[in-house]
Amino acid sequence: MILDYICLENFGAYHGRQEADLTPDAKHPVILFGGMNGGGKTTLLDAMQLALYGSKARLSNRGRLPYRDYLRDCIHRNADPGEGAGVVLRFRRTLEGRISHFELQRHWREGVKGIEETLRVLRDGERDDLFTDHWDEVIESYLPVGISNLFFFDGEQIKDLAEGENAAAILGTAISSLLGLDLVDRLEGDLHVFERRKKSEGLDPEAARQLKIAQTEVEQLDREQGRLAMESGTLVNEAGRLGKEVRDRENRFKSEGGDLFLRRKELENQQSSLKAKRSEAENRLRDLAAGSLPLMMVDHLLADVEVQARKETETRHNQLLVEAMEERDSSLLVILRAEKVAAAAIKRVSQDLAEDRQHRLRLASEPLVLDADTHFPAHVAHLRNKILPEAVHASRDLLALIRSLDEKIARLDAELGRVPAEDRIATFQKELEEARRLHAEKMAELDALKIRSDAITRQLNEAKARLERFGDRDSDAKEAEDSRLRMLKHSKRVRETLGKFRTQVIRRHVSNMEALMLESFRTLLRKSDLVHGLNIDPETFQVTLTGRGNQPLPFDRLSAGERQLLATSLLWGLARASGRPVPTIIDTPLGRLDSSHRRHLVDRYFPLASHQVILLSTDEEIVGDYHKALAPFVAHHYRLAHDEALGQTRIESGYFETHESPR
Length: 663
Prior knowledge:
Radius of gyration: 47 Å
Distance between the termini: 23 Å
Number of strands: 15
Oligomer: single chain
């Protein structure tokens, strides 16, 4: 099992959508999260367990809080309760000889009837209704919640094991779950029921009659429950087969062009819309062609017209100027003569003025070809510099738009050309619809059977409760009967035998566990001469150590750090004994360990604990030299950035500021 991805949405301290890639590789099995105390490390561990186990998850701060009340409290305070919160966890594991990818989507929200929780299970990217409906059984068969604390634990669990007070209880629970001894516990419970039944045989006739009725009812309901369980198994198999048939039909339908056939109307509408847009663009282009745009073809002639118009304007100006100059020049000569200027000078001035008038007269005599008004040159210039360039730009845009629309229309034509004929695809469509109908009917049968099974279970529990009440009535009535006492005695012996059987099972397997625990402890401690033996009492689960010369080694002879390494070794050894390839997740991995022994875990445990190790560290644990030593094994670094003012945490790439990593 490899965890690939987690997403928390408005869960606990995590506001909004926070994501992290958890995928390791062969040389980098460690994913390292750094966060301050109260910043969301334990919440992240809880989220992973909640996604896997739901109401059965062993959560840090649930206590005795009802499950739905706990879910309500997990919705971020700034989030809308109606939108709710959720956790998405992706992982992969080998199933039926191949690797399958799973995605768990667990969400909950505040509805009209209180907290409403939904769970969806995707297998290889597609929703799997069977896994969704029976996820509790699926995960319990692969990784029972009873042994989950061998793989998901925190510093407090190490502390409890190290201090020794609760070590036996913790080990006993883990070993019993690991060996599947809960069946023995159920057998003992059944024997207790049997003994209560035998004690009830001393009742009066009427009570005995009622007891017989109650016993018959329980037996009938028990048989019915067994029959429904077998029927449910058959339906689950049939539904799985039909689900595969649906997927096969869907793939065949797609390969024959079914998706295009279903989208035919949509494609035709898109084609009509694009053709309408192309027609509109062509109309706008025609409007431009009907206006001034064609003048762009004679722009050089328009330039000549503009020059000619300006020349003719100047000719008109010169005509007016010549008339004014003649009067001016006559007046000037009169003034010069009156002033008795020298005759030679007057003659020279008169000649120059006459030449200037002749020059301007020649200019004024140019022919007026256009004979336009004085504003005509400006109009031509505006046409050339403003109107025509804008028309050209608009026409180019329209031509580009038409080309683009033509390409899209051509692609749609090609897609529509691939749409199979209705009579050709009808057979595949009918087969797909029939397969879906059969699968839906089988799922409906399974749902109806589940409702019946739940009802039978409730009736059976009620009948057992009534039977229990009968059994408690006059339990000493026939205490003296030998046969009943003999049965009770044999039942007690069987229970004692079961107790011995439990002990023998544990004794048979405990040697392998002891060897793995001792090997793990020596790996961490690197003091091969300190501890020579490790033994677990199969009845009390007390751990004893032996040192040199096989002499007992009391726990108090070990330092606090050595006891904590021993506690870690016990969990590591049990995890290895389980034989399950499951990731190891540790919250505050060094929090309870003294500095002299921290390096042992960093160098010898974290890189080897599993094929995937997720560590949730504070800024006082995996930092400095510890971080440098672990960094070559880290696939991803993340920082849990907590904002006290807003009360929210974000998952960011990187690590603590003074310990950033390039990976």
